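Homework help board

Subject: predicted structure for assignment chain

Our instructor gave us this sequence and asked us to write out the predicted structure in token form, then describe one feature. I got the tokens but I'm not sure how to describe them. Can anyone check?
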Amino acid sequence: MLLAGLGVLMTGMKMLSEGLERSAGSSMRKLFGKISNNRFASIGVGAVATVLVNSSAATTVMVIGFVNAGLMSLVQATAIIMGANIGTTLTGVIIALSGFSLSAYMAILAFIGVLINMISKNDTVKKVGSAITGLGLMFVGLSFMSEAFKAQKIASALESVFLKVDFPLVLILIGIVCTALFQSSAAMTAIVVTMSGAGIIPLSSALFVILGTNIGTCVTAIIASFGTNTNAKRTAMIHLLFNLIGTFIFTVFIWIFRDGAVWLLRKMSDNPQMQVALFHVIFNILTTALLVPFIKPLTRLATLLVRDKGDDSTPKMYYIDDRILHTPPIAVAQVLKEVSNMAVLAKENLDRGFNAIVNASVAEREKILQTEEKINFVNKGVARYLIKMSSLSLPRSDEKLVGSLHHVIGDVERIGDHAENFLEEAQEMQENGITFSDDAMDELNNMYQKVRYMFERSLYVFENRDETALAEISELESEVDMLKRVLGNNHIMRLNSGNCSVECGTHFYAIISALERVADHLTNVAFSIKSPSGSQIEAMEKIAKEQAKRHHA
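My token output:
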């Protein structure tokens, strides 16, 4: 019954976590968008994020992913971790409520959650139902565990263990080891709270075990930091240092004033479970208050302990990291940023490629080739990341988004290829002494400026999901198509008049055809916000249907 109770508790915690996380997806995205250099604001972000995902370990792993992707400084990460440690105390307080005979009501709540999940067709409501079910199951599990602890054999055996093992450092070690094994400080806190309620573990001993759980929870972050960059490893070290320093201070204080600490907690609450939960809250709030002024020294200490191994020139993703996949709503937001950044790289490289033609120079050859290599690397990395995201439980809207991004990165990668093609055209023209007439060059510049403007507008539509600008994109593509035909006819006239050579015409047609294809890819990128394949027809049909529904309503 004890093992079954623990299993139900951990299942309930997982359901509560996932339900909260998915139902609060947009809130999580906005929350992490507000990260700033204000340490108190960052502490608030860490606390709220942990409440939303119901796990300080998940928040810390996410932060390590952000630092590894270069999106967050060590100072910001430190403040968020401090907030996460405060946020996780809510779970302990919720668990302590089991001491107020709420199990029967919570079991009914679990059933209500299941009904909501079965009956509702709304994705968000279903996720809320899952969270409610998880909360109810947590109390069912705690009830099982409480009943198991009442069994004479288990109660006597554990009581004798804690009577013999009364040395603070051993109790802290028990907390560290058990939390590391469960990979959840909340689960270990639940066990200690339940044992305390059953009278198996004295409050004076429970306090030291709780201190140990705060160190044990760092194991998850340390494991998550394997294979990351130096700063991400330092983030995991800061998490460990924070809890080590706090545990050391509280251990010394409680060791000296053990009876006084117990007396104070009993004055605060008559309920044994709540006494343990309150101590957990006090530990994390006071440790944060003590260390907030020392955030920068703490980051410097972590920098000294985790040495930089030198410049790592290995290509990497800019915004995405596998550790962020633990929080799908954030992963979706980050992969959009990665694709946008890939598009910016393609735009910059297209400028370099076209400038090679305009200036009749291949001086930027190496830069173009290096950037093209980066684009290809990001393309493959994002494709792998999207496949991993497809296996996650995502809202329907995010599933469609992930599907559309497979097409978008393909279009962006092909735009990048045209920069390399322009470089080849410029190199071939230079080698053969071919130059364009002034009229031809003016026409190419005009067409390129049109495509360049279209690039900016398409990227705006993609990043802001702005459907109202799709008509403009469609119009720009028609203008580029018309320009290609006009420029082709003009060039034929120049050939007939002898102003341009046949060899020159081959390159001219190759360039205007490439620009027209770039415009096609940009159209696909923009229209991907309504159609996974980037189809204009499909997107316009969807918009028309939506407008008809709104009009009918």
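Reply (TA_rk): Your tokens look well-formed. For the description, you could write something like this. The CA atoms of residues 218 and 240 lie 6 Å apart. That's the kind of observation they're looking for.
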